[in-house]
Amino acid sequence: MKLAKRNYNGLGTFIRLVDYMVVETQVKINQESADLILAEMAKDSKKYGIQTTVSFAQEDMSFEPAKTEFITQFEKILQDMQSVTEEVSRVISHQDFHQFIHGLISDSGPRFRAIVEDSEAYSTSKTTIQRRIALDFEELQQIVKKFEACRVVDDFDRDFVFEEWKKDHSDHEAIRAKLSDLAKWEAAVGRIAGQDAKGLVLVQGRKLAARLSQRVKEEQGRMKEYLLELAELKAKEIQTGLQEIKQTLKAAPGSLTSYVEYVSKVQMCKARKDALAEEKKRKLEEMKGVLSKYRGKDEPYPNVP
């Protein structure tokens, strides 16, 4: 009976010991889970765990999703791991054990989450995960500076309105200059269409490149259509001038006096005809040259009059 009474009196301590062992195991499992995340981060042969895209901010390049969002999500993963482990009921919370542990502990003892958060090992693992993500993004911030070469294209995409530009530009030289810019921008955009990686993070430039490339191609098409339109107008203008010359010379002179005037008209018309012919050769050929130079891969050769 004495042994039974002694064992009975020791049940409270035994229950506390079992509770301690369970909680210690839970804390260890949680720590191992955090360490597993770190181990996966350290693997050289891993696939990238984080993917983001790059875009233009006011003064620098920005990521979407941003660094802070990923750090927040990893912190949530760690919190969720605690929540799952915490769902296991504490031994000392069992109703039937209260009579044995009454007076041995205050309240229900330290909370599992508080034990984990106060752990130096857990704090180190959590900080290391956050620092690793932050450092990867900081290094990528330097890598994506190459995208700055396309900021002018992004500004163009935001601000340029073709119809407004067209009102102030009606010569082929202005169109040639704009097509030259667009060709340079097209090449620059092509150089950012891939992807870059650092540590855990993979940043995609395809989405940004696709948007800028689409806009460049659209404006190239509009510029070439506009130039062809100007060429057709110039051809019609020259044709009208030639018809006017023909009409001027149509009426034959009826007298010697009128013949003298007619000869003068012939000379004037010849000079004008030569000027029109030179203008046709020079301007229309220049326009044709511009259209040919910036002709797309699958576009037919320009049919300039």
Word description of this protein:
There is one protein chain. The chain is an alpha+beta fold and 305 residues long. The chain has a domain at 2-46 and 67-146. Helices cover 69% and strands 6% of the residues. The protein contains eleven helices and four strands; from the N terminus they run ααββαααααααββαα. It has a four-stranded mixed beta sheet. Strand 3 and strand 4 form a beta hairpin. It is rod-shaped. The termini are far apart. The mean pLDDT is 80.
Mean pLDDT across every amino acid position: 80
- Largest sheet geometry: 4 strands, mixed
Order of helices and strands: HHEEHHHHHHHEEHH
Q: Please identify the structural class as seen in this structure.
A: alpha+beta
Oligomer: single chain
Strand content: 5-15%
Order of strands across the main sheet: 2-1-4-3
Q: C-alpha Rg, in Å? A: 40 Å
Terminal-residue CA separation: 120 Å
Number of strands: 4
Q: Give the low-pLDDT segments.
A: none
Q: How much helix is in the residues?
A: 55-70%
Helical segment count = 11
Sum up the overall morphology in one term: rod-shaped
Layout of helices and strands:
Layout: H1 2-9, H2 11-42, E1 50-56, E2 61-64, H3 67-86, H4 98-101, H5 112-117, H6 120-143, H7 151-159, H8 162-168, H9 172-190, E3 195-198, E4 201-204, H10 206-248, H11 256-293
Parallel strand pairs: 1-4
Antiparallel strand pairs: 1-2, 3-4
Helix pairs in contact: 2-3, 2-6, 3-6, 9-10, 10-11
